[in-house]
Automatic annotation (TrEMBL):
It comes from Planomonospora sphaerica. Belongs to the NodU/CmcH family. It comes from the Bacteria. One of its GO terms (molecular function) is transferase activity. The lineage of its organism: Bacteria, Bacillati, Actinomycetota, Actinomycetes, Streptosporangiales. Pfam families: Carbam_trans_C (PF16861), Carbam_trans_N (PF02543). SUPFAM superfamilies: Actin-like ATPase domain, YrdC/RibB. Residues 371-540 form the Carbamoyltransferase C-terminal domain. Residues 2-71, 116-322 form the Carbamoyltransferase domain. The keyword Transferase applies. InterPro entries: ATPase_NBD (IPR043129), Carbam_trans_C (IPR031730), Carbam_trans_C_sf (IPR038152), Carbtransf_dom (IPR003696), DHBP_synth_RibB-like_a/b_dom (IPR017945), NodU/CmcH_Carbamoyltrnsfr (IPR051338). The keyword Translocase does not apply. CDD domains: ASKHA_NBD_TobZ_N (cd24098). This is Carbamoyltransferase. Keywords: Transferase.
Length: 546
């Protein structure tokens, strides 16, 4: 059976296709439209659908809309409670109206689709399915935490043989995700977009406001929590975008980050007591907080923790499709990886380069050629295979550099136009990771945890060591990604370092590069030395030779 899942209601619109229980394709609309996050998370954008992502998913499988056995829409307007605290009373009815009419909107966007095939999947159930049904095991406790769904902001439950039992859900207006969004905005960043910047800033501060926040943000002992109104200005003045931040701002970020971790630990302990499960799966935007994830695994009661790589709202497209498949009696297969987006053949990539009249070469040993460029301290744009589903660059659409040059942190942040306090991440061969990193799960293929860099390595790979001595690593498996693994091996031969800098292939405010045109445009506008497009190398000096 064939099920298409769609996320459209808040932000990060996306589509995913599941056929006979297998994940076939998943992509975010931003990669096609080139609008960061696809759209802003406001009620009057709820009509915007992931039309291009959905059309591509179907084309990938050679399907037409009429071939589908069901379409999951990851929001159920019947669950919205008008007048409930925490909703935007001025506009919430508009969001609900759009959701109710979604079947007809979708039939217009996907000609041939029967509106009766569209089924509403509650937002947090879709999140839960994206974790519990996509994980590499059938039974687990599941924890979802984000800004909000229809009427709640969290779900705690259990998957047993693919069936979900909901044990707790926190009603609005109490929301850990919205709380983190509020402080994100207060610190001068964009809410529902830049929360990871607060997490990075937290490492520069001390949690000196923690005592007061413990009174306002707390677990309730029944699987839920309370978030009382917080006067953020009482801790640090509100920042405008781009304004310099002070010690107060860093301390506020550190205090909020620490309190979030503590409450998540309380929720996890309650869930473990109720389920007795050894494994926890997580989704929802809060699950992208890799610092909290690491503490949850290190100090929490669960032996294993698996986080959906597309844990934000984009992942509900996949979760909705998996939920319908499970309900139809087709047990979901584990998610095969995050490389679920678009890809091109070598011949197609060459045609792009020929059309652009760009000089290029095809080396006999691509891995060795790229490793040599990195060893010479050149910045490399790496475009390989199918693009990633979710916000992390995982060696498909990446910017790479030498980790042994401390100046490369500032250099790459300049290339991308990012704030200088933000860290850049390392990729490392899975079998070498434990030699260099500790306190964190290994393997860690999705960049969803932080690890301490062993003291003897901190001066050797300074570009990827954050101010607190940690790094958000991606481990590379030789079997799953032989080309990337060989490049890392060749780099170690030349430098003695089995680590390479890996950050997303994009510039600030723009989505990650997805197709060859995006790659060429990024290469042309940013000071990158080398573009690796499939098996081809494009040298900046040759393209822009006078």
């Amino acid at each position: 059976m064939k099920f298409l899942g769609l996320n459209a209601i808040f932000h990060d619109p996306a589509a995913a296709l599941v056929v006979d229980g297998e994940v076939v394709a998943a992509a975010e609309e931003e990669r096609f439209s080139r609008r960061k996050h696809g759209k802003r998370p406001v009620p009057f954008s709820a009509w915007e659908l992931p039309e291009q992502a959905a059309a591509w998913c179907l084309a990938r499988a050679g399907l037409k809309p009429e071939d589908l056995d069901g379409v999951a829409y990851s929001y159920d307007p019947a669950l919205v409670r008008p007048g409930q605290r925490g909703l935007d009373e001025r506009w919430e009815d508009l969001r609900t109206t759009y959701a109710r009419r979604a079947p007809n909107f979708l039939a217009t966007a996907l000609p041939g689709l029967d509106p009766a095939q569209v089924r509403y999947v509650p937002h947090h159930v879709a999140h839960a399915a994206s974790a519990g049904l996509a994980a590499p095991y059938r039974d687990s406790a599941v924890l979802v935490c984000d800004g909000r769904g229809e009427a709640v902001s969290h779900l705690a439950g259990r998957y047993a043989d693919g069936e979900l039992t909901v044990l707790a859900a926190q009603e609005l207006p109490h929301s850990l995700g919205l709380m983190y969004e509020e402080v994100t905005e207060h610190l001068g960043f964009m809410r529902s977009s830049d929360e990871y910047k607060v997490m990075a800033m937290a490492s520069y501060g001390e949690p000196r406001f923690l005592g007061e926040l413990r009174e306002l943000i707390r677990a309730t002992g029944d699987g839920g929590f309370r978030v009382e109104p917080v006067d953020w200005a009482g801790y640090a003045k509100r920042l405008g975008r781009g304004e310099p931040w002070s010690e107060d701002h860093a301390d506020l970020a550190a205090s909020v980050q620490r309190r979030l971790e503590e409450v998540l630990l309380d929720l996890a302990r309650w869930l473990h007591e109720r389920t007795g499960e050894r494994r926890l799966t997580m989704a929802g935007g809060v699950a992208l907080n890799c610092v909290a994830n690491t503490r949850l695994l290190a100090e929490g009661p669960f032996e294993e923790l698996w986080v959906q790589p597309a844990a934000g709202d984009a992942g509900t497209a996949l979760g909705g499709a998996l939920h319908l498949a499970q309900a139809a009696g087709e047990p979901a297969a584990p998610m095969p990886g995050a490389d679920l987006g678009r890809g091109w053949t070598d011949e197609e990539l060459a045609a792009w380069l020929d059309a652009a009249r760009v000089p290029y070469e095809r080396p006999a040993d691509l891995a060795a050629a790229v490793a040599a460029e990195l060893a010479a301290d050149r910045i490399v744009a790496w475009f390989q295979g199918r693009s990633e589903y979710g916000p992390r660059a995982l060696g498909r659409r990446s910017l790479m550099a030498h980790p042994g040059r401390a100046a490369n942190t500032e250099r790459l942040n300049d290339v991308k136009g990012r704030e200088q306090f933000r860290p850049i991440a390392p990729m490392v061969l899975a079998e070498r990771a434990a030699d260099i990193f500790e306190r964190g799960p290994i393997p860690s293929p999705y960049m969803l945890f932080v690890h301490d860099v062993r003291p003897e390595w901190r001066d050797r790979i300074p570009a990827v060591v954050h101010v607190d001595g940690t790094a958000r690593i991606q481990t590379v498996d030789r079997t799953g990604d032989p080309l990337l693994a060989r490049m890392l091996q060749e780099f170690e031969v030349r430098t003695g370092l089995p680590v390479v800098v890996n950050t997303s292939l994009n510039t600030a405010g723009r989505p990650m590069v997805d197709d060859p045109r995006d790659a060429l445009e990024c290469f042309g506008s940013a000071p990158v030395d080398l573009l690796v497009l499939g098996p081809y190398l494009i040298h900046r000096g040759k393209v822009f030779a006078s």
